[in-house]
Write a structure and sequence with these properties.
- The complex is a heterodimer.
- Helix content of chain A is 77%, strand content 0%.
- Chain B is mainly alpha-helical.
- The longest helix of chain B has 34 residues.
- Chain B starts with 5 loop residues before the first helix and ends with a helix.
Chain lengths: 273, 265
């Protein structure tokens, strides 16, 4: 059953990958329909100097960064408690943290429309409490996008951190405590450095997901808070500007590849040390 | 636990609030008797559930979504299992490079893949959108099939297969009577993961939609943009219920945290 003869089993998969993914992607970037490659690069150059386009790139990067930091800050402690707790509830809590990964992003994001809408729970509560006199504009703001993306990617961050933390021997914590280190010192000098690769994985997944997500910026940011993804869809379905759509696709792909490369570099360095 | 680690515990509580509270509000709103998403609801009724079940565009696209998810999960397994076998059992040069190549659809943004398929297949080759969607979803599910069944293969002792071969079984017979049965949990996990991922997909399904065939998430997204009725809330609750059923099935078989979180508990 073993040996090089098995190589032919790769053929159907390779055909699918080449014809259904790699070749179309390369053609799209360098030669979209009725457009010369030169036009795409001209449009890309324009995009990287035009203030409007730069604002969209900046917003996408900025919100992506905020969501990434928020996901790590909330996700790591959650994973730490789940991994170190002996309570019988920890299994249930872990399941609750994983469950959103199965649930449609449309459903999850729709919840924020109910919470943040002008007739929604938060606005009504703020009015009722007398904090504001009329319902504030919460939807279609950067805050709405951050909340939506945070909800979307937090489970991913928790799972990535949990997997790393579960591999760290809990008795090391006890050893540090036994040698007289306080809780905070144990956390920062033992727990965090040993599970660092998990944090890097979590941050990479969240950032790459945030800068390419469509549903959340579309529903919670609308046309007021354009991001790369919603702009790409507008160019390819409403205005049919293939050069612009391809330029955005290129920017997005480069962003995601760069982040993956940086994170694998950090991961490798962490392993060497 | 809470009293001894106040900072860590409050961050965790905040995390759960962000993940869960919006879902709670969807459920509450779905049972309103009013006709807006106003909170608190004006009264209670099951009205929006019957409206959702009677709303043709949602029900038609639900069937489309289910068809697409089942077909692409099956195709991904049919193409992915041979690849996993070749990678883990064949003595091939550049094994990790090959594996990376087959996992590459996970890295490229889905919108980019969708746009590429839309341009090359639907516009360039005039292919219908169902076929294009099938290709796209299969490409997207493919890495799951290769990785999850590959992980099962890596855990399996190759000596079992060698024993079957030594006893005179043909390679094909060895595969169907030894490898495949041992692989069943991996196949089930990969299939379920692919099904869920395809069913929930928005970027590909959005770019590759047509009037005759669109998926439920895309139809809902379109509806939300134009209307502000609780019908999306009740539909969301129905999807939520269906997802809970799948989670329970997963837990009763291979293990929920293992399939969807890659965590062995």
């Amino acid at each position: 059953m073993r040996g090089r003869r098995l190589a032919w089993l790769l053929v159907p998969g390779l055909v699918l990958l080449l014809a259904g993914f790699l070749i179309p992607s390369v053609i799209m970037i360098f030669a979209p329909p009725e457009t010369a490659a030169a036009e795409v690069f001209a449009r890309l150059g324009q995009m990287l100097t035009d203030p409007y386009d730069l604002a969209i790139i900046g917003r996408t990067l900025g919100l992506g960064l905020i969501v990434t930091i928020a996901c790590v800050v909330l996700g790591f402690p959650t994973a730490y408690l789940l991994a170190r707790s002996n309570s019988r509830w920890s299994g249930v809590l872990l399941a609750i943290a994983i469950f959103p990964l199965l649930l449609s992003s449309v459903v999850r994001t729709f919840g924020w429309l109910v919470v943040l809408g002008s007739q929604g729970a938060l606005a009504q509560a703020l009015v009722a409490l007398g904090v504001v006199s009329e319902a504030p504009q919460l939807l279609y703001t950067p805050l709405a996008i951050v909340l939506g993306l945070l909800q979307l990617f937090l489970p991913l961050a928790i799972v990535a951190c949990y997997s790393a933390l579960a591999q760290v021997d809990a008795s090391l914590d006890d050893a540090a405590r036994g040698l007289g280190a306080g809780r905070a010192r144990t956390f920062w000098t033992i727990v965090v450095p040993l599970s660092w690769p998990g944090v890097v994985v979590a941050a990479t997944l969240v950032f790459a997901g945030s800068v390419t997500a469509y549903t959340t910026p579309y529903l919670l940011g609308g046309s007021r808070q354009r991001m790369l993804s919603t702009q790409l869809y507008t160019y390819s379905s409403t205005t049919i500007d293939w050069a612009a759509a391809s330029s955005i696709a290129m920017v997005m792909t480069v962003l995601v590849f760069a982040v993956s490369a940086i994170s694998s570099l950090i991961g490798r360095k962490a392993r060497v040390e | 636990m809470r009293s001894r680690r106040p900072v860590v515990a409050s961050l965790a509580v905040l995390g759960y609030v962000v993940m869960i509270v919006p879902l709670v509000f969807i459920v509450i709103t779905a049972f309103t008797s009013g006709s807006t998403l106003r909170f608190p609801p004006e009264g209670w009724s099951l009205r929006w559930f019957s409206e959702a079940l009677a709303y043709k565009p949602f029900m038609t696209s639900l069937v489309s979504s289910l068809q697409l998810a089942v077909l692409s999960a099956v195709f991904a397994l049919l193409l992915g299992v041979p690849v996993a076998l070749a990678i883990h059992r064949g003595r091939l040069p550049g094994r990790s490079l090959l594996e990376g190549l087959f996992l590459s659809p996970l890295i490229v943004p889905e919108l980019v893949v969708g746009l590429a398929l839309y341009q090359q297949f639907m516009i360039g080759l005039n292919l219908d959108n169902l076929s294009t969607l099938l290709i796209g979803h299969t490409v997207l599910m493919f890495p799951y099939a290769v990785r999850v069944t590959g992980a099962s293969l890596a855990l399996m002792d190759p000596a079992v297969e060698d024993a079957a071969r030594g006893l005179g079984a043909s390679p094909l017979r060895t595969f169907f009577t030894v490898t495949l049965p041992l692989l069943r949990p991996g196949l089930f996990s990969a299939g379920l993961l692919s099904f869920i991922t395809s069913f929930n997909n928005v970027p590909l399904s959005l770019l590759l939609q047509s009037r005759d065939f669109r998926t439920l998430p895309v139809t809902m997204l379109d509806y939300v943009q134009q209307n502000y009725t609780p019908i999306v809330a009740s539909t969301s609750v129905l999807i939520l219920a269906g997802t809970v059923v799948i989670a329970i099935i997963a837990e009763r078989t291979v293990g929920f945290a293992k399939i969807f979180g890659g965590i062995n508990t």
